Amino acid sequence: MADGKLVTAADLDLVATSDDGLPLNLRTAREAADRQAIRQALAQAGGNISGASRLLGISRPTLYDLLKSYDLHG
Prior knowledge:
Layout lengths: L25 H19 L4 H8 L3 H10 L5
Helix pairs in contact: 1-2, 2-3
């Protein structure tokens, strides 16, 4: 696996290329993950905000804030 005491991203096949379509900064990556999780929770909860917030482990007001900030509709 690693050639020494240090494990690098290349050892774990984690080297990102510029054309892999993945976000290159943490904020963008987090927003994409948040959006996906919110959409999935809403789908599983049948569009119910309270149910989706329970699935996500956040409060209903927090979910409303996220929906607004990401311009998603619940």
